[in-house]
Design brief:
The structure is a single chain. It contains 19 helices and ten strands. With 476 residues, the protein is an alpha/beta fold. The protein has three domains: 172 residues, NAD(P)-binding Rossmann-like Domain (Rossmann fold, 3-Layer(aba) Sandwich); 250 residues, N-(1-d-carboxylethyl)-l-norvaline Dehydrogenase, domain 2 (Orthogonal Bundle); 39 residues, 6-Phosphogluconate Dehydrogenase, domain 3 (Single alpha-helices involved in coiled-coils or other helix-helix interfaces, Up-down Bundle), CATH 1.20.5. It has an eight-stranded mixed β-sheet, sandwiched between helices. β8 and β9 form a beta hairpin. It is globular and about 80 Å long. The site of NADPH dihydro-nicotinamide-adenine-dinucleotide phosphate has 23 residues, from α1, α4 and β6. NADPH dihydro-nicotinamide-adenine-dinucleotide phosphate binds next to α1, α4 and β6. This is 6-phosphogluconate dehydrogenase, decarboxylating.
Length: 476
Amino acid sequence: MSKAEIGLIGLGVMGANLALNIAEKGYPVAVFNRTASRTGTFFENAGDLRENVVPCATLEEFVAQIKPPRPIILMVQAGKAVDEQIEGLRDFLSAGDIIIDAGNANFRDTIRRFDELENSGLTFIGMGVSGGEEGARHGPSIMVGGEKQAYERVESVLKSIAAKFEGEPCCAWLGHGGAGHFVKTIHNGIEYADMQMIAEIYGILRDGFGMGAKDIGGIFAKWNEGRLNSYLVEITAAVLEADDPMSGDPIVDRILDRAGQKGTGRWSAIEAQMMGVPATAIESAVAARSISADRELRLLASKTYGSAPAPTNTKPDASVIQDLELALFAGKIAAYAQGFAVMDQASDEFQWNLPMPTIARIWRAGCIIRSQFLGTLARSFEADPDAENLLLINDFVSMMEEAHPALRRVVAQAALAGLPVPALSAALGYFDAFRQARSTANLIQAQRDYFGAHGFERIDEGGEHHGPWGSGAASA
Ligand SMILES: NC(=O)C1=CN([C@@H]2O[C@H](COP(=O)(O)OP(=O)(O)OC[C@H]3O[C@@H](n4cnc5c(N)ncnc54)[C@H](OP(=O)(O)O)[C@@H]3O)[C@@H](O)[C@H]2O)C=CC1
Ligand SMILES: O=C(CO)[C@H](O)[C@H](O)COP(=O)(O)O
């Protein structure tokens, strides 16, 4: 007899913890993993929760153990593995069963999978999950895309496993098709920008002032009590204060300076570019990881050009610390403005009607970018759901007015000292360009017309015009 209410495939970091979370909430869960030994180990370690876990060695057994109509969560590596897993399952499933891809899928793959499963009788859901290992175990933020009726069939289990913010589950249906995976992708793009800007401030304190990891950790810990209160700042403090058991040094000093990336940050930047929405802080964060990855080339370049000047080895005074805090805050506002602008455009292009206040609300707990800031963001979007850009919402105007002069000073000083701050300077450049009433694009238009006869608009007359370029110019 079928025992499980739900199934989960993929018992890696996320899947194993999500399965325990589901079991803990009282839902019997059937589990399967490609490598069977992992299923055995998982079950052995499930402790008291074993009574709600049904370990399965084959897909046939797995499907048979779930009560129809069967909701099945896939938590496997994104990409080919998802297609292979769906293909492997299809022979055993029946009409009405629901396949939920909970990995970090590219939303374009999700849209393709919806198309491929159309008329199959099966229901598909593309679901973004954020919160890492801890979130999966005790409450992630869950971003769902697909048919609303399909979501309603699994809503109670999803809401029960989701993080709660003041009692409200951080789980919502966000739109049809790839909406959930798109929002998760932009979440990660913002995560990249947040992390990179934090790393840049760390770099200023380490390489500009010569501060040690623990002292820098103390500064982040203090900031975590104020406007920068967030999971990423909190873990930054914890990471900087942790010792390496092998050497006794701060562990961060022993970690190779080469950042990995699995794709979501890059997809955010690509999609932003495809839609013509500036997401420069996110793009810079992705590029910074790529530059970091080629360490040999950096070492060669540092020999060729010399590194930045030696640290001053002076303790930064209170006004510098405050500037750094405000600069990070201003950068954060710009990065979120960009991320939400990308979602706004995608919402129109894919007709998702993305609910921005809901997105901000379900990011307040459980996910990696959770922060006090998102509470303000959620309240602001609720008051002004149609705001064209975060930077034009009253609360953010006041915050940015207070913070951007510090961002300017920090970027300027870092540039003079030769310290790289690509994401912070991209955020500043975006802000300055965004608020520039007369941009310099008049010159771009003139150049385009000169070499390509592309035409331009005039400020004093309608219609398309060409310039008086004379011989050598395309329009001459
Ligand atoms: N780690 C994180 O913080 C987060 C990860 N995610 C996403 O969740 C998904 C899972 O990530 P995570 O748990 O970290 O990854 P892990 O590497 O820990 O686990 C990967 C899982 O995928 C399975 N798998 C890999 N290839 C195949 C295949 N071809 N067919 C079937 N199963 C396969 C593995 O099975 P086997 O044991 O046989 O190798 C394993 O169960 C990814 O999409 C990831 O991007 C989302 C949010 C946060
Ligand atoms: O989705 C996540 C967090 O929200 C995953 O941890 C993801 O792997 C992070 O991206 P990357 O590996 O590219 O840093």
